[in-house]
Amino acid sequence: MDLRFDLAAALERELTEAALRSGLTEAGFTPAVRPADPVHGDFQANGVLAYAKRQRQNPRALAGALVQQLGGLAALADIAIAGPGFINFKLKPATLLDWLRAHGTRAALAAGASAAEQGRTVVVDYSSPNTAKQMHVGHLRSAVIGEAISRLLQFSGAQVIRDNHVGDWGTQFGKLIWAYKRHLDPAALARDPLEEFERLYKAGHHAAEADPAVLKEAQQELVRLQAHDPENLAIWRKINEASLAAFQEIYDRLGIRFDAVHGESFYNDRLDQIYGELESCGLAGESEGALVVFHPEHPRFKAQPFIIRKSDGAANYATTDLATILYRAEHFRATSALYVVDKRQSDHFAQLFLTASKWFEKTNRVLPRLEHVDFGTVLGEDGRPLKTRSGENIRLKDLLDEAVERSYRLVSEKNPELAEEERRAIARIVGVGSVQYADLSQNRSSDYLFAWDKMISLDGNTAAYLLYAVARIHSIFRKLDLTPGDAAAEAGATPFETPAELALARKLVRFPDALAAATGNLRPHFLCTYLYELAGEFSTFYSADRVAVDAGPVRARRLVLCNRTLLVLETGLQLLGLRLLTKM
Question: Residue 27's pLDDT band (boundaries 50, 70, 90)?
Answer without folding.
Answer: low
